[in-house]
Amino acid sequence: MLTSMPGADRIFGAFIYPLTALCSTHPVWFWICARVLFSDRATLRTSDVICLGAMGVAGVLYQSQLPADSTDTAVRVLGVAFAASGLAFACLAPLTVYFGMAGDLDLRRRQLRQWFVPVVSIYLAAVLVTQAIVMFQGGSTPRTLVLLNLVVIDVAAAIALSTFVQLRVVNWIAAVDIPPAVALSRLEESVLERLNRRFVAERLYAREALTIAQLATLLGTQEHVLRRVINQGLGFRNFNDFLHTHRLKEAAGRLGDPQLRRIPVLTIALEVGYGSIGPFNRAFKERFGVTPTEYRRQNSTPHAPFPESA
User: Fold this and answer.
1) In whole angstroms, what is the distance from residue 188 CA to residue 146 CA?
2) What confidence tier does 135 reach under pLDDT thresholds 50, 70, 90?
3) How far apart, in whole angstroms, are the C-alpha atoms of residue 151 and residue 157?
4) Contact present, 104 and 237 (Cβ < 8 Å)
5) What CA–CA distance (Å, rounded) separates 194 from 90?
6) Are 135 and 141 in contact (CB under 8 A)?
C-alpha cells in the first residue's frame, strides 16, 4: 500500500527501493507461510532466501522502469515474467497444503487444509482470469477491482491475525488449568496395542512408500481410527514424522555401529524404507543436523543418542 500511494517516490526517496523489494516478495512469503503453518518441522531454507532475493530484485528492476518505458518490449517481457513468477509462487501455496494433507494426523489442521485449498485456488483463478483479460485488452486493471482486491486482502489478514493473537484476561496468581488428556476408546486402545506390538517387531516402517491407508489394512483397522491412535495415543501430528522417527532411529543405530562401517549408506537407507539416498539424506540432516556420513564419522557406539520427537 505504501509503494502504491501517489507520490511514493518523492515521499520515501531512496527507501522506496527496499520497500518495493519487500512488496515484490509477498507471493514467496505466502508460499513459505503456508508451508510453515501446516508443517511441524518447516524452516527457512537456502532456496527460500534465493527465491526471495530474486523476486525482490526483479520487482525493483521492473518498477524502476515504469511508467516511462512501459511500452518497451524488454520492460513488457520483464513485467510478464515477474507476474508469472508471482502467480507461480502463489499457486505453490495451495498445492503444498494439498499434497501434505494425506500424512496429516491432526484433525483440526486437516479441516483447515480442506477449506484453505479451494478458497485460495478460487481466488487465484479469479486473479489470473482478470489479469489475462486486462493483458489482452492492453489496458490497466480497473481501479474498482484494485480497491476490491485490497479490501479482500486486508479482511483476510485481519481474520488470520485474530486467530493467531487473542486477548484474554488471566489471573496470573491462580494456578493454570491443564487440559485433560484425550482418552482413547476401547477400539482405539486395541489398535494402539496392535501398533506397538507389530510396528517395530515386524519392521513395518521399513516398507517403502508405506501409507497410513496401507498400515491400517495391515493392522486390520480403519484409516480414521489409526490416524487418531497415532495422533492422540502416540503424540505425532504427521504420519511422515512418525515413519521418519522409526526409520532414522534404526539408521542411526546402524551408522553408529563400528561393526557395520563397511555397509554403504545407500544400503542402510534402502533397508530402513527409503526409496533413494536423496530423501534419506535430507530427513537425516533435518533430524540430526549432520549428514549420515558425518554422523557415522562422529559416532562410534552402536547406541548413539537419538532425539525422540513428535
Assistant:
1) 52
2) low
3) 10
4) yes
5) 43
6) no
Number of neighbours of residue 132 by Cβ within 10 angstroms: 10
Residue 32, all three cell numbers: 513459505
Does one domain contain both 155 and 259?
no
**Same domain for 290 and 200?**
yes
Same domain, 206 and 66: no
129: enclosing H helix or E strand: helix 107-137
Residues 158 and 235 in one domain: no
* Last-in-domain residue among 125, 148, 164: 164
pTM greater than the 0.85 cutoff: no
pLDDT for residue 310? 42
The residue type of 96 is: T
Provide the domain limits for residue 289: 190-298
Closest CA to 35 of 58, 51, 56, 57: 51
Q: Which of 55-69, 117-131, 190-204, 286-300 has the lowest mean pLDDT?
A: 55-69
Is residue 283 within a helix (H) or strand (E), and if so which, with residue range? helix 277-288
Residues 141 and 48 in one domain: yes
Enclosing H/E stretch for 206: none
Bridge partners (DSSP) listed for residue 250: none
> What's the structural domain count of the chain?
2
237 lies in the same domain as 160: no
Are 89 and 27 within 8 A, CB to CB? yes
The CATH number given to whatever domain includes residue 279 is: 1.10.10.60
Domain boundary pick from 125, 149, 164:
164
- Alpha-carbon span 270 to 279, nearest angstrom: 11
Instruction: Provide the residue type at 146 as one letter.
Output: V
Q: Report if residue 84 sits inside a domain.
A: yes
DSSP lists the bridge partners of residue 104 as: 238
Query: Can you give the pLDDT at residue 304?
Result: 46
